[in-house]
Amino acid sequence: MNTQVLVVYCTVPDENTGKSIAASIVAEKLAACVNILPAVLSVYTWQEKIEQEQEALLMIKTTTSCYAALEAKLLTLHPYDTPEIIAVPVEKGAISYLNWVSDCTLSSPRELATDK
Known about the structure:
Number of strands: 4
CATH topology: Alpha-Beta Plaits
Structural class: alpha+beta
Largest sheet: 4 strands, antiparallel
Helix content: 25-40%
Strand content: 35-45%
Strand order of the largest sheet: 2-3-1-4
Low-confidence stretches: 110-116
Mean pLDDT: 91
Order of helices and strands: EHEEHEHH
Radius of gyration: 14 Å
Number of domains: 1
Number of helices: 4
């Protein structure tokens, strides 16, 4: 494996939005897999008010070499003004799975980062 695997967390307003985003980023090889957790309760501050919303959570498996293009794509597809996009490095994992993530993603997706 020549690149580090990341798990990117991204909340979306609902499961259908999550499915649409997931299909797009997997089809473009910006992610190997996206898990959609259909019901999470988010409590947060927005415009100086405490808010509570039901959302869906995307757990996106990608690589460091795809991250910039993935983030750019998420920002174009996402309906929120300020979407949650948080990448966490995978420290350890089954080598066969980590290699699969690397094999399923683009090794140099830079050209997609500017494609809007």
